[in-house]
Design goal:
The protein folds into two domains: about 190 residues, no CATH class; about 240 residues, Metallo-dependent phosphatases (Purple Acid Phosphatase, chain A, domain 2, 4-Layer Sandwich). Helices cover about 40% and strands about 25% of the residues. The protein contains twelve helices and 19 strands. Strand 8, helix 9 and strand 9 form a beta-alpha-beta unit. Helix 1 packs antiparallel against helix 3, helix 9 packs parallel to helix 10 and helix 11 packs parallel to helix 12. About 5% of the residues have low confidence.
C-alpha cells in the first residue's frame, strides 16, 4: 500500500475525532449561551418583580408601595391624590420609595383598587408600617434571586464550567450582592435625615411646610430603628387628614393668620412663636393673640414679649386675658399692637372684631362668671349691630362669645371664633361656626418648665380664602412637647 494512501487512512479517525470534539464544544457553547440568555430573561423578570407596586388592604383603605430607581434619588414620594405630591429628601442613595394611600371612602372612584382592597385578605395589614415591613421582606426574596442569576451570568467557560456555575450562582454572586446591599443600607442609614426637606407640588403646595418649622426650632424626630416607622405613620396620618376635594375646590390666594395664646411670660414659648412667624410657613397676613401673654400683668413682661416676637411688617392684634392688667395692655398699645375692644379690623378680605377679658385691665386674675355672662350679652348685641357681621371674632374666654355663637348658628351665618384660656388646642365645628382653641404657648408660666417639661406648647395657623365671602379653609396645629419631646403637626381641612 502506498505510503500516501496509508497516511490518508490513518488520518480519518483523527479527523472524525477532532470534528466530534468541535461539535461537542459548539454544543456546549450553544447550550451555555442559551442558558445565559434564559438567565438574563429571568433576571429581568426578577427585577420587574422587585420594582413592581404592591397594594395592601389596611384599615384606612388601599395602600400601595413601590421602589424605583432614581438619580440622585433618596426620596420618599407620597401621593396626596388630586392635591398633588409630597416629597421628603430622606437619604443619599439612588432609590426612591413611592407611597400611595387611597382612603376607603374614595375607593368607589377607583374600581381596580377597590377590587384589590376587597380581595386583599391575604395582604391585609392593620396599618401602613406593618404593610411596609411585609413589602421590604418580600423585596429581599427577589434580591436573593437576582443574586443567583448574576452569579450564573458571570460564570466563564472551561472544562469545569458546571462546577463553577454552581459555585458562582450559590456562593460568589449572592455574597457579592449581600456585600453591595450592606454598603447600600449603610450609606442610607448614615445619610438619613431625621428632619428631611419637604417639598409639595400641585395644589398641595399651599399646605404649610411644617417640617421646615420643626427643623428650625431644633426639635428632632426620634432616631434609630423607628425612624421610618415614624415617617410612615406620619404620612399615613397626613393622608387621612387631607380632604382632597376641599383642597381642589378652594385652591388660590390665601389669607394666613398665626394664632398665639397663653404664653404666660414663657421665654421658650416666645422663641417658638417668633420662629414660626419668621420661618418658611409665611407669609402671614396677621398675628392674633388671644390673651394671657403676661403672667402677672406687668409692663416688663409685655416689653419682653414684644422684644422676642419680631413681627416686622406683620400686624399684631391682641385681646387681653385675665392675666393681663392695665399696665400690660397700655404697654402693648404703645408698642404698636392693636388691642381689640369692639372695633372692626380688616385683614385682607376678612372682617375681625374682638373683646378682651373682663379682667384684662384689672389686677384680679380668677375669672368672674357674672362678668363673663354680661360680656357675652354685650358682645352679641355689638355683633348684631353691624350691617355686615364680621367673619372672625377673637376672645380670651370662650364664654365671652356664647351669645354671638348662638346668633350665628340661628342665622346660619359662617363664623370663626378664636379663643384661649383653657390651654387646650382644638378645632371644632358647630353648625355654621368654627371654634378654634389656641391652646397654650407656655403652659402656666416660665416656672412650670422644670416641673412639667412634657406639656405641649401649641400654635394655630389658619388659612382663609379671599374674595367677597371669605371662609376658613384649614387649620394647622403645631404642637411641641415641652423642651425635649417630639413635635407634631395636624392639618385639618374645614368643609
Amino acid at each position: 500500500m502506498p505510503n500516501r494512501f496509508r497516511k490518508i487512512v490513518r488520518a480519518i479517525p483523527t479527523g472524525l475525532l477532532k470534528q466530534k470534539t468541535r461539535l461537542s464544544k459548539n454544543r456546549k457553547i450553544i447550550f451555555k449561551g442559551f442558558l445565559k440568555v434564559m438567565i438574563v430573561v429571568l433576571l429581568l423578570f426578577f427585577w420587574s418583580r422587585l420594582t413592581e407596586p404592591v397594594t395592601y388592604h389596611i384599615t384606612e383603605g388601599a395602600l400601595t408601595y413601590k421602589l424605583e430607581q432614581g438619580w440622585p434619588g433618596g426620596q420618599i414620594q407620597f401621593s396626596l391624590g388630586p392635591a398633588g405630591m409630597l416629597y421628603l429628601s430622606t437619604h443619599k442613595t439612588p432609590v426612591n420609595l413611592e407611597m400611595n394611600l387611597v382612603l376607603a371612602s374614595d375607593l368607589a372612584d377607583n374600581q381596580s383598587l377597590a377590587k384589590t382592597w376587597e380581595e386583599g385578605v391575604a395582604k391585609f395589614k392593620p396599618d401602613a408600617i406593618h404593610a411596609f415591613y411585609d413589602f421590604l421582606w418580600n423585596r429581599f426574596i427577589w434580591v436573593a434571586l437576582i443574586g443567583l442569576a448574576l452569579g450564573v451570568i458571570v460564570t466563564n467557560g472551561g472544562d469545569h464550567w458546571v462546577r463553577r456555575l454552581l459555585k458562582n450562582a450559590l456562593y460568589r454572586g449572592p455574597l457579592a450582592l449581600v456585600l453591595l446591599a450592606g454598603i447600600f443600607l449603610g450609606v442610607t442609614y448614615l445619610t438619613l435625615d431625621r428632619t428631611p426637606e419637604a417639598r409639595f407640588t400641585g395644589l398641595a403646595k399651599d399646605l404649610p411646610t411644617v417640617i421646615e418649622a420643626v427643623k428650625k426650632m431644633g426639635s428632632n424626630y426620634p432616631v434609630g430603628k423607628n425612624v421610618f416607622r415614624n415617617v410612615i405613620d406620619g404620612l399615613e396620618n397626613v393622608s387621612a387628614q387631607v380632604d382632597r376635594q376641599s383642597i381642589v375646590t378652594t385652591s388660590g390666594p390665601r389669607t394666613r393668620i398665626l394664632v398665639i395664646s397663653d404664653i404666660h411670660d414663657n421665654i421658650w414659648g416666645m422663641r417658638q412663636a417668633n420662629d414660626i412667624l419668621s420661618g418658611s410657613l409665611g407669609p402671614f397676613s396677621a398675628v392674633i393673640i388671644t390673651g394671657d401673654i403676661t403672667n402677672f400683668g406687668r409692663a416688663e413682661e409685655a416689653n419682653l414679649f414684644a422684644d422676642r416676637l419680631k413681627a416686622k411688617k406683620v400686624p399684631v392684634y391682641l385681646v387681653g386675658g385675665n392675666h393681663e392688667d392695665l399696665s400690660a395692655i397700655e404697654t402693648f398699645r404703645s408698642l404698636g399692637y392693636t388691642v381689640l375692644q369692639g372695633q372692626t379690623i380688616k385683614i385682607d378680605d376678612l372682617s375681625l372684631v374682638g373683646e378682651s377679658d373682663p379682667l384684662a385691665t384689672s389686677y384680679l386674675i380668677d375669672s368672674d362668671q357674672a362678668a363673663l355672662i354680661s360680656a357675652s350679652d354685650d358682645f352679641a348685641l355689638l355683633w348684631a349691630s353691624f350691617e355686615d357681621q364680621p367673619q372672625v371674632i377673637a376672645v380670651h374666654d370662650i364664654r365671652q362669645a356664647e351669645g354671638v355663637i348662638e346668633l350665628a348658628k340661628k342665622q346660619n351665618q359662617p363664623l370663626t371664633v378664636i379663643f384661649g384660656h383653657d390651654h387646650l388646642a382644638s378645632v371644632k365645628k358647630d353648625q355654621s361656626v368654627n371654634l378654634i382653641g389656641g391652646g397654650t404657648g407656655g403652659a402656666s408660666g416660665f416656672d412650670e418648665i422644670g416641673r412639667k417639661p412634657d406639656t405641649p406648647y401649641t400654635y394655630q395657623i389658619l388659612d382663609f380664602s379671599r374674595g367677597p365671602a371669605p371662609i376658613l379653609l384649614s387649620v394647622t396645629t403645631l404642637s411641641f412637647e415641652g423642651l425635649t419631646g417630639t413635635s407634631t403637626a395636624t392639618y385639618t381641612p374645614i368643609n
